[in-house]
Specification:
alpha/beta; 5 helices; 37% helix; 221 residues; 20% strand
Amino acid sequence: MHHQHVYRFAPTPEHRGERLFVFLHGAGADAHSLIPAAFKFQARFPSAVLVLPEGVKRCESDRTRQQWFSNRGLNDDNRLERVAQILPDVEYLVRREQAAYHIPAARTVLIGFSQGGTVALEAIKAVPGLAAAVVAFSARFARLPRAGHIGARIHLVHGEYDAIVSRVHSERAARVLSALHVPCTLDIVGDLGHALSHHAISIGSLRLLQGIYEGRRATVH
């Protein structure tokens, strides 16, 4: 694994870090690309520590860019295997940040766009205790969960006209997760392609907030 750049942003000065948000960028981008999205999440969660790691592999097409796993020759047979290879790195990274900031998994959220969303979804499937929630934008599972315990809330946000990762993947995932009794939300954003719009980010952070309050209410009663 190459030396990984990680951007870290502390909460706003009057707050101590109470939540950890780990942002996983898409293929062919870099950690920098999610900074605007991260700050929009922090506007809704002022006590959140923002961590934006860089993908663990270099892009074949552009050596200055990063990815989490190779897209070259990617298909339904090898996708899961490729993601599985890097999950130990992702788990290590998340646990390291949790330890550094003294923030437990119960207050950790994985937020990913596209390939980063796939990594977040597969991480929570493979390591159920890693985080309390996942917000996946324009993403898909490498392989849909069949059974087992996913101890996290999952919020799926997808562009209606995504030509790279069809919204069908999120629709299917939502049905499967509901059948497995995993708390899940699905939002299809009208007129949006394979992109992170201000509106999509706003929906994702709102669903996260609602999920946290619903979880709290459930424990109170």
